[in-house]
Amino acid sequence: MREAIHVEKPYFLASLREWLFTTDHKKIGILYFTVSYVFFLVAGLFGMGVRLEQAQPGMQVVSYDTYNYFLTGHGVVMLLWWAIAAHIGGFGNFLLPLMIGARDLAFPRLNALSWWMFFGASVLVLLTLIPGNQIKMMWTGYPPFSSNPDAGVTALYVFVIHLLGASSIATAVNFIVTYLKMRAPGVTFWKTNMYVHTLIAANVIQLIGVPSLAGAVTMLLLDTYFGTNFFNPAKGGDPLLYQNVFWFYSHPVVYVQVLPIFGFFSEIVPVFARRPLFGYHTMVFAVWGIVALSFIVWIHHMFVSGVPNWIRVLMSYTTLLIAVPTGIKIFNWMLTLYKGAIQLRSQMLYMLGGIFMFLIGGLTGIPNAMVAIDLGISDSLFVVGHFHYVLGMAVTLGILGAIIHWFPLATGKFYPENLGKISFWVIFAGANIFYFFQMVVGMLGNPRRYPDYPPIPEWAALHMIQTIGALILGVGIIIFTWGMIKGLISGEKAPQNPWKSPSLEWRLPVPAPAHNFGDEPPKIEKDWHPYRFDKLEEGNK
Amino acid sequence: MEQIFALPYEWWKEAVIVWLIISVIIYLVVAVPGLYFVMKYRYKPGEREIGDHDFESHAGLEAVFVVIPTLIVLFLATYSFSIFKKMRTVPDNAMTIKVTSFMWGWQFDYLDEKGNVIKSVLTGYNPNDYTLSEEEKPVIPAGKPIKVLLTSMDVIHSFYVQPARITEDAVPGRITYLWFQINKPGEYYVFCREYCGTGHSHMFSILKVVPPEQFTAWLYGNNAVAIKSETNKEVAQ
Ligand SMILES: [Cu+2]
Ligand SMILES: [Cu+2]
User: Is the pTM of this model over 0.90?
Assistant: First the structure.
């Protein structure tokens, strides 16, 4: 019976050597997540530096160049490490095989390659901390500025994008094939968890879009170091070419970042409403509708870039149309609450808070899409406030709630519930104070990426309020992080399926055993569905 | 027309109000029932341990969720289109100023009907504060539409007329345009809103809006301001 004992061993009890050479999706998921979380904290500190500098007019905290470096680092790391790698590399790796009843991903060694490329990109980013290596071109890296010495080390930026891009493409192929080929018998398309649907949709976007971004930065590298003229108007090039190719991917990437978060909302809200996800089918259609639309809206990032008027109007329509599938999702989450049996456990608070932030973020996205309003707010702090509601807070609240929810599966212990609740309310209050007033000062005209601004009393007051909000937000993140450490060390031991969820990953003992479900895929009953709570065996309803 | 302060600011403001009203309504329609459900349908041990499992979809309701937002969105897009058209159509009586951007400032060339430069003003880089000397301030007549032709000598910049709430990028190798009109004399900020490096946040200018007669005197007056700007122009190029 040695086999059986082997199966019961938690996945994380392994030697350092096993961790280093691992191809296990759970270990790789944890590795991804750990690096991303540390980077999240560092990028948060960068953001705090930016925020403190803007607290008052004039320069008090950092120099212009340090500010530009902080802001570039904050953008690149938050978008690519936190809002992608943490929940695709981290949660996606960990959960995908478990939710579909598979033993691992389809290509475990390719997965290890993805992780090591990601790790390489992480090391490259750390190199920018060395003075003289800074990148100061903002995360968008627009030429001709990004070829200018004032932009910092362009090559580092390009290689970071290339490594991450190669890693993402490998992951995307791996996840998509895993989903298509490795589902346990009985896990059909219409019985797939929403999180898995959204994860696959996000990776389809990656597969289509990343090559476009890679092309953009390759041209940038050639222009900067090898004398080509893709973006040089003096020799017949066009700087707007970069923007087009860049945004062709970098708008859809917003949905790479946010769709799996919708997946978290759709997983956790039903569990704590004890009720099936309302409108599951339309939700799936909405996800794929978003994927399709996301590739024909990118000009909304270029509404004032000098492109022809007709294309601005056209993409104003397509952009606004995305509100329809996104709206469907919000309505469905709300109706999932209707006639539920709602428990406001901390992860449920995080999900409801995330949906609230997303609602505000969606409504404040409308004026950016209405080209007539955008001419007045483009590249202002309004845009920054808006996308921090969506990408900043909806994503962060989603990830933090997901940490609490799947903590027992990963560690065998509970995240401390009281710290979960406290951190939620502190983060939620701080973020709303911060980003709401950021939008207000943007409406008044404050441009983005400004370390300094004119001493207009109204603007100065609004910046001071934002800074207070940011400090509260920071305290909330510290409390949350402390909760994770405390849970790991001394968290209460969790039983199997602590939330009484019908989803497949909870059929495993906690923490998850090394070989998941063992040699046989889990036996799935005919009437099983990841959101049918009435089909759970007695005592688990 | 007396009360109108600036264009396209008036239209822009109207569009913002329309958006705000619709957003607040949508917000209430979604958030109030959501909050109510959370309050009402609480888990109670022994009494309410499982939620309703019958109402998991509703074709009619879901169709409404598609149709109504689609109509709202089409309305907003079309409404925005109608305003955008006005914003991008330069009135016939507009006066043209050519603005050349550089790291980190602008040169303003006042053009006559034939496109010849009548006068130039150069706003240089002031990294210390947000003030300019008198000769660095471009002057425009109140109540007259101004067409700005934009280009850049180095990297991409933009030209944002803060009181008029209008922006357009200045792209090297291209000529882009915007137009605006300010009716109230005074001094107003212009900012660069496309990130352009170290001096980005101090890439600003101060527009001096004066009554038309005063403007004509300034434009054709053979004063020291004009001469100094001409020499600065060479320095910048
Ligand atoms: Cu976008
Ligand atoms: Cu500039």
Answer: yes
